User: Fold this.
Amino acid sequence: MHIPPGFGTAQTEGKVLKLHRSLYGLKQSPCAWFDRFRKAMVQMGYKQSNADHTLFYSRNGDKLVVLIVYVDDIIITGDDGSEIKRLKQQLTKEFEVKDLGHLRYFLGIEVSQSAKRIYLSQRKYVLDLLTETGMTGCRPAFTPIEANQRLTKDGGSPVDREQYQRLVGRLIYLSHTRPDLAFAVSVVSQFMHDPRSQHLDAVMRIIRYLKGSPGKGLLYTCHGNLQIECYTDADWAGSVDDRRSTSGYCTFIGGNLFTWRSKKQNVVARSTAEAEFRAMAHGCIMVEQNILRSIGTLSKKS
Assistant:
């Protein structure tokens, strides 16, 4: 590898370092690898998205090809078959890659697709979580959280913090295809620094809910339009500890759910109207930042 910046001297000029350990063990390897990949994609005529730096795209007339990369896992999609074929050939020349065919499994997310629909789920991920926690034979719950349940920071005796954080972290990742978990997971994630027995009971209820619905996910179909719809809601003073409200929003493009979130508001709302207004404003801002910016990026001429 090249001499790291700041360590070069007259004696090391024109020389390189010989590695005695795996490249994956070096902290700078992810940045070095992605910079190498980015330069190769730019040389192939692809643009890097401003909304997501791991996304590259190429537009030829009304045809579009999109590539997204996570470390060394790559997804390629688009409606330009000849360009996708050319891109695969260029990647094969530049890197040692293997074409695994149609996308079926990616980072714990299962993909089922046909000519008219795409279905995303994390069924195997849920089953592994149930096995890990010993909840495969538990009695399922009908909701991820009890109605009108108010968790407090002093909810019972302390529990194992590492175990709690590990479970909540897995639930946060599971929320990528499970919008029905957004509110419950946002509530239990507020007590990561000092979990108590009441908080762990709420986490276990979420897992019991997953026992009865392991295969739920996201369905994307073509409705013939790109109409943007945003729905927002809020509870007033839902937090017992600081009296702050919780906002929630979900956004649809062409009838398909694309973004959603549940988060505690930054300030204390003095009325239900103020809490609802803040939720609506937050939802509109997220639509502008997360969706319109992405669409605008891909709409630019390459």
User: Anything to note?
Assistant: Residues 129-212 form one domain. The helical segments are 29-43, 81-94, 123-133, 161-174, 182-188, 197-212, 272-299. Confidence is low (pLDDT under 50) at residues 297-302. Residues 235 and 245 are 6 Å apart (CA to CA).
